[in-house]
Design goal:
Helices cover 87% and strands 0% of the residues. By secondary structure, the protein is an all-alpha fold. The termini are far apart. 17% of the residues are buried.
Length: 150
Amino acid sequence: MLVDMIERSTLAAGAMILRTADHLQELKQVKLDIRRSLGEVVTSMRSVALFFAPFIAAIAARMQGLLASKTALVGFLNEGARIPSAAFLFVLGLYVVLLTSILMSYAVEIELGDDPLAKRVTLARALPIALGVFTLGAIVGGHMLTAIIG
C-alpha cells in the first residue's frame, strides 16, 4: 500500500506516513492508559497470591484438623471417610503454589507483556513469600485455634 502511494505521489505518501505515525503514537498512549488502569487489579492479584490465599488456606487446613480430631471423639460423627490432616495441609500447600504461580504470571503479563525471564524472577521471589505465609499461618493458626476451641 505504501509503495503504491509513493508511485502515485510523494506528497500523498508523506501524508500517509505522518498519519500512520500519529496513529501509532495514539496506540502507544492507549496501551499506557490500559496498563495504568489495570495497576489496581495487578496489586490485588499480588496481594491475594502472596498473603490472603496462603493465610486463609493455612487456617482452613488447621480448622479441618481440629474439627476432625474433635469429631473423632463423638461416635456417630466418626463413620464417614476422612482425610488425614497432614494430607489436607499438603494439598492446600500445592494449591497455594499453583495459585501463586498463576496469579503472579498473569500479573507479570499485564505489567510487562510476555517476558519469560520476568515471570521466572517474579516466581522466584513470590513462591518463598507465599509458602512462608502459608507455613506461618499454619503454625500460628493452629495455636490460635487450639487456644480458642481447645
